Amino acid sequence: MNIPIFVPHVGCPNDCAFCNQRSITGVTEAPAPESVGSIADEYLSGGGAGENTIAFFGGSFTGIEPSLQRRYLAEAKKYLDAGKISGIRLSTRPDYIDADVLKLLGEYGVTNIELGAQSMDDGVLAASGRGHDSGAVRRAAGMIRERGFTLGLQMMTGLPLDTPEKSLATAEEFIRLGAAETRIYPTLVMERTRLADMYRAGLYRPQTVEEAAELGAALYGKFRDAGVKVLRVGLSDSEELKGGCVAGPYHPAMGELVISRFVRNQLEAHAEEGALRISAPKKYFSKIVGPRRCNARYFREKGVYFSLTEGEEPLVNGRYELLF
Fold it and tell me: What CATH topology corresponds to 2-252?
């Protein structure tokens, strides 16, 4: 479990076309460094000490003034030194990484650094107002790995000028760069962003839920095959997110939808047998039938017999292994 400490817009003077961190995170002000302990204690009260990480999300952490970084990290390190957490994670921009930054992070026991790369296509980055090119991602990723941190690379799909082919190429480059982890975020048009202005002016067409799910499933499979852990697909749902979303592939359970689509695509290969007799542990049932039983309904509407029973292994028609 991540113990999230949201620092919206702290350390980030750049307003990307798609960004409204306050609506995305539901947090309007960054907590004081002294609050890190109380936030961590609240999460840890449920048990599982030693298996969690304190994670600084929502802004560009390494763009924060160094003395303030140290105050946040010092509070987190107390929990690391006490064995209450297993690591410290943070997210930042690729162009906010250099040798001095990594030296500071190393001093406080940071284990995982996630870069908001978003795309490896320079045209997409420029159209999205990112303020850096793909070369910045390559340089930062190389430095992070060389210094022994676990590298995470976050991507967005459906950005201005993006295409499914460009998103798949981004995933392939993430793999080549040695990412151990990734997050996949379909682009939502949030209120009070330049992207919302572009959308209303007819200059931007967002993905549909169907497009985001199909592309997300392809990306999920590509990362899975390469051994890259997909930490999340889609933003965490909240009233702020739902209320601030103007357009785009909003879904309250995008991650579940994408994984169930990944499963459905596998089942499609065996549907020609006329029947899908699936056995699996109960923990996989929701992913197999899909949100609101969309997968089960999809195959039954095609005239394919669909059944799901409990079993030790996820198998289709008793012969084919089902991957998750």
Answer: TIM Barrel (3.20.20)
